[in-house]
Backbone:
């Protein structure tokens, strides 16, 4: 690993729980620790309900009021969980920003595209009106609009999904943050737009040395894009390591299953009407986690011990921890 | 112009000829602007097969789906279900045909009332069509039908009393399928039904669709933007661009020998994704 | 622009339709102005029939309508049989009083409701929110008639305000400032009642629409980009929440002439309401029609103003008028 890179974000023992109306606590994120270094792209692979969106929102502290966090999230020398609202405002959009899943919902419908980007600039940078407008044009060009002057006065409902997402990225990058969180930025887009966005994000990483936390449920998107990868299931990290290692020889049964499914869903010239790979069953109920491995009920490699204790992290390979009893006791 | 799609079974279940649909903007006091959503589309689906229509957003594929299911009335053309042309039928004549054609949408949260229970959602078409499996059915029979449908789509019948919003996205999509199957349709139109789902959920639902097709001899029209996925499921593929079908043929043919630039572009993207994944995953299990 | 032209044309058609319906309905309603006269043995039938033809009431319906239309286009709305005065000036003199009342009410209602609605939306479940919800529920549930009578009774009992009419009898002798104060004192009671009833409704709508926007994803996204709460509220939330509020404003404007009838009658405020009431009871034909048309004019105008405002404030509305992308 490149030891000269600094740690940008350090998450330790983060737990995010939602209090539900009947008194139960839904643990969306359960004791997670991770590190993002500067200039690095960390991928989080996981499906609905695994807690990845809660993780992203916890880093920005934009969780709903009935959510509780514990643990620590260190950005530079500050612990985000301990900051007050004013200090947080200075970090959001400036040191860290987020691009969400549905571009149709994350843009203000009555403000023009240019205005919305200017708002972010206005909130953080002491620029004059003219400087702001110039910066907006530069940003729009950077995210791939050929005619930034025209796009600037356009409203979100006049744009396609892919274009809206590019505007959202422009907003997120306006103040050149150190960390960009992309929470499933392509799942609502069609295949063509999806690819454009990934290309755009790769370009950003190279150009500005921005760290990216990229969250998705589709293994295909990480290929060639993420440096390191975390696999999340039911609120916990079950495997992590260099993306090449995790994809090249996935250790955890869940990761292996996801990779199998992804491969079976890719283009094929000949395999027609062959059943797709799939995992039986459904993710566990977050209000009622049982002891033991959470993937166990759906696992084809399960052993008896798997339902009794939660597997710690084992290291069958260096820098490639996996929480599975198939690799240790 | 466009080759018939089926290979062995000669029986054509759905034939669409010269379908046209335009949306107009503007009104009384200005020049009306016509936008051609679908501009002359022909295809055919034999009984028990799946035709997939792929294309980018705005290519007109969803409009084709809506016309075939008669959610919209086409401007011209014929839609032959067996031998009956349903393109120009009025709502009264359409009613008995509604049970032969059903549609499943992309977003289950907007196509089902989130406050209805699973039972209410599944039995609603039964109430409307007043049919059970073969008989006119009463409340008790409807519940029985709902239970067996839930099991068939992989959900526990215990959950019949749960409101829709308590189900996950994938489960809701299964419910939408159960609802569509309630009236024993012969043609199922799937409008981006598999889009926006998690990978494992998507594969589960896709497998379910294949199983259901075998079990009930269903004919499928699948609309999707995901050429990769569609290449694994469909018997034939039609590629749409600008309101027209630019290429159509059996899946193997279209994938191996694309002719139109749009097809080539979509294929290239799909191949690039596949090879990226293959490169990274290597020879993993 | 063309969109506005269409709305205007539709508005005119609407007014024509209203006038036609008015004529039709008043014709169908039983009784006429002269019924009471007929009962009076001192008035001969010849007098009555000559009065009738003087007012053109013996002509067939369509002829009457056509003649009325023709003169209406010259801003002559006919003659009031009861007052023996031309309708238009009579209406206008009363309408001015009503507009004074409802205009003040509108202004103050919105002045109170908007900040109150925004505040309670921003702090849901707080003490103020609960108080406002409770009070507004109560005010909406109780009929306006009851509220008016109760307030009136309290005012009379405790001699708080001048009750009845618009000006005191001895107002002539006062200075301008004195007259003004006197007017205000008379205005206060009916205005208070109206403000009470209307604020209850509007504050809830404002609160609901602001609340809905506050929980929208784009607000969360903006918050996530570090935009502070105040700016978020005023520059991001309110412009979007304004949309339904503007429609509501249109309704308020539309009701400027018609919404205060009950209160005017109870408080003795000499506005359009009591005039129309009398006219209807007396079957004073042209006065009734003129009055209804006047109200309709305001109603249509109010909606038109709301449409214009909406077009100006919400870019999504403009899409319908353009060849959007």
Residues:
């Amino acid at each position: 690993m490149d030891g000269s890179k600094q740690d940008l974000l350090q998450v330790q023992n983060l737990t995010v729980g939602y209090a539900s109306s009947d008194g139960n606590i839904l643990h969306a994120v359960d004791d997670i620790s991770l590190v993002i270094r500067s200039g690095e792209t960390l991928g989080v692979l996981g499906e609905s309900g695994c807690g990845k969106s809660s993780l992203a929102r916890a880093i920005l502290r934009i969780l709903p009021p009935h959510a509780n966090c514990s643990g620590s999230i260190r950005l530079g020398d500050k612990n985000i969980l301990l900051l007050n609202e004013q200090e947080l405002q200075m970090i959001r959009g400036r040191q860290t920003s987020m691009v969400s899943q549905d571009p149709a919902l994350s843009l203000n419908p009555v403000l023009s595209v240019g205005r919305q980007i200017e708002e972010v600039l206005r909130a953080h940078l002491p620029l004059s009106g003219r400087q702001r407008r110039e910066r907006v044009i530069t940003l729009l060009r950077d995210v791939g609009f050929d005619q930034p002057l025209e796009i600037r006065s356009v409203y979100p409902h006049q744009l396609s999904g892919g274009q809206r997402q590019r505007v959202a990225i422009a907003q997120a990058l306006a103040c050149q943050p150190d960390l960009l969180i992309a929470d499933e930025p392509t799942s609502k887009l069609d295949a063509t737009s999806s690819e454009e966005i990934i290309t755009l994000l790769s370009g950003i990483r190279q150009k500005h040395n921005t760290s990216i936390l990229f969250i998705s449920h589709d293994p295909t998107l990480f290929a060639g894009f993420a440096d390191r990868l975390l696999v999340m299931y039911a609120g916990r990290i079950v495997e992590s390591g260099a993306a090449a290692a995790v994809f090249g020889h996935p250790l955890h049964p869940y990761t292996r299953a996801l990779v199998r499914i992804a491969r079976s869903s890719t283009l094929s010239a000949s395999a027609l009407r062959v059943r797709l790979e799939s995992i039986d069953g459904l993710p566990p109920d977050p209000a009622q986690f049982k002891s033991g491995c959470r993937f166990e009920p759906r696992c084809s490699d399960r052993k008896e011990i798997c339902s009794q204790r939660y597997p710690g992290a084992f290291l069958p390979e260096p820098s490639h921890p996996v929480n599975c009893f198939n690799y240790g006791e | 112009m466009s080759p018939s799609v089926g290979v062995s079974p000669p029986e054509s279940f759905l034939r669409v000829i010269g379908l046209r649909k335009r949306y107009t903007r503007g009104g009384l006091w200005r020049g009306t602007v016509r936008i051609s959503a679908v501009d002359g589309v022909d295809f055919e689906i034999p009984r028990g097969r799946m035709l997939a229509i792929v294309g980018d957003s705005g290519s007109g594929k969803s409009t084709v789906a809506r016309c075939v299911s008669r959610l919209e009335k086409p401007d011209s053309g014929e839609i032959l279900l067996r031998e009956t042309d349903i393109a120009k039928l009025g709502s009264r004549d359409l009613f008995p045909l509604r049970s032969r054609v059903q549609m499943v949408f992309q977003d289950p949260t907007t196509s089902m009332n989130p406050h209805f229970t699973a039972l209410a959602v599944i039995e609603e078409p039964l109430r409307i069509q007043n049919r059970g499996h073969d008989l006119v059915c009463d409340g008790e029979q409807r519940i029985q039908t709902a239970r067996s449908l839930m099991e068939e789509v992989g959900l526990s019948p215990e959950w019949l009393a749960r409101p829709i919003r308590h189900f996950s996205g994938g489960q809701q999509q299964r419910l939408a399928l159960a609802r569509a199957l309630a009236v024993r349709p012969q043609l199922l139109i799937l409008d981006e039904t598999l889009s926006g789902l998690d990978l494992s959920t998507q594969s589960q639902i896709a497998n379910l669709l294949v199983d259901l097709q075998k079990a009930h001899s269903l004919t499928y029209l699948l609309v999707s933007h995901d050429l990769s996925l569609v290449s694994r499921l469909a018997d034939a593929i039609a590629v749409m661009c600008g309101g027209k079908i630019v290429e159509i043929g059996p899946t193997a043919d279209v994938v191996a020998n694309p002719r139109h630039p749009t097809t080539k572009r979509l294929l290239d993207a799909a191949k690039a994704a596949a090879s990226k994944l293959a490169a990274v995953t290597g020879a993993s299990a | 622009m063309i969109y506005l032209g269409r709305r205007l044309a539709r508005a005119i058609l609407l007014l024509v339709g209203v006038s036609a319906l008015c004529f039709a309905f008043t014709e169908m309603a039983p009784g006429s102005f002269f019924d009471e006269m007929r009962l009076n043995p001192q008035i001969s039938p010849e007098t009555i029939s000559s009065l009738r033809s003087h007012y053109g009431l013996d002509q067939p319906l369509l002829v009457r309508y056509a003649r009325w239309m023709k003169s209406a286009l010259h801003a002559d709305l006919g003659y009031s049989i009861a007052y023996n005065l031309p309708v238009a000036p009579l209406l206008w003199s009363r309408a001015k009083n009503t507009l004074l009342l409802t205009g003040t009410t509108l202004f103050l209602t919105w002045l109170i409701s908007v900040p109150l609605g925004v505040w309670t939306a921003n702090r849901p479940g707080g003490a103020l929110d609960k108080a406002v919800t409770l009070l507004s529920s109560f005010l909406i549930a109780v009929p306006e008639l009851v509220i008016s009578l109760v307030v009136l009774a309290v005012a009379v009992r405790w001699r708080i305000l001048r009750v009845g009419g618009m000006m005191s009898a001895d107002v002539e002798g006062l200075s301008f400032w004195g007259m003004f104060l006197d007017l205000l004192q008379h205005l206060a009671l009916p205005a208070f009642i109206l403000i009470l009833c209307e604020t209850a409704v509007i504050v809830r709508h404002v609160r609901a629409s602001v609340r809905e926007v506050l929980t929208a994803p784009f607000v969360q996204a903006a918050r996530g980009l570090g935009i502070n709460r105040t700016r978020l509220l005023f520059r991001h939330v309110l412009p979007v929440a304004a949309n339904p509020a503007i429609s509501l404003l249109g309704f308020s404007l539309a009701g400027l002439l018609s919404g205060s009838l009950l209160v005017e009658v109870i408080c003795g405020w000499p506005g359009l309401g009591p005039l129309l009431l009398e006219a209807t009871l007396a079957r004073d034909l042209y006065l009734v029609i003129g009055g209804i048309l006047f109200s309709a004019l305001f109603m249509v105008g109010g909606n038109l103003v709301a449409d214009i405002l909406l077009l100006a404030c919400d870019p999504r509305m403009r899409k319908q008028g353009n060849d959007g992308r």
User: Anything to note?
Assistant: Chain B touches chain A through 49 residues (CB under 8 Å). The longest strand of chain B covers residues 12-25. The CA atoms of residues 237 and 254 of chain B lie 7 Å apart.
